[in-house]
């Protein structure tokens, strides 16, 4: 897993899972704490995430809200969009461009 960027936009790539969660949490919390306005997470380079990775995203979302910021997801890959829909988190998280429910393959 890698994260590059600053307190305005971060690109997350690789695997966001139990092995990378602590490092990702540290970087995301620092970005939230050090900036103002929307924090954009570009997930277009993310290969996969598990429940722990999703928890890191939700933790950053809550922390951003407490700091008066908004976490915005950009470039969410289709398989991860399905997970957000299945967990109904697409209703809570800000997703740039939204999720086209009709375009997601049925499982």
TrEMBL record:
It comes from the Bacteria. Gene3D superfamilies: STAS domain. Residues 1-107 form the STAS domain. Coiled coil: none annotated. Pfam families: STAS_2 (PF13466). Belongs to the anti-sigma-factor antagonist family. This is Anti-sigma factor antagonist.
């Amino acid at each position: 897993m890698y994260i590059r960027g600053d307190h305005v936009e971060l690109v997350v790539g690789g695997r966001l899972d139990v092995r990378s969660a602590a490092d990702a949490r540290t970087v995301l919390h620092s970005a939230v704490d050090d900036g103002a306005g929307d924090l954009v997470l570009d997930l277009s380079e993310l290969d996969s995430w598990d429940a722990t990775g999703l928890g890191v995203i939700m933790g950053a979302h809550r922390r951003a809200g407490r700091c008066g910021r908004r976490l915005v997801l950009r470039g969410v890959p289709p398989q991860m969009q399905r997970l957000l829909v299945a967990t109904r988190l697409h209703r809570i998280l800000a997703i740039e461009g939204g999720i086209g429910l009709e375009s997601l393959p049925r499982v």
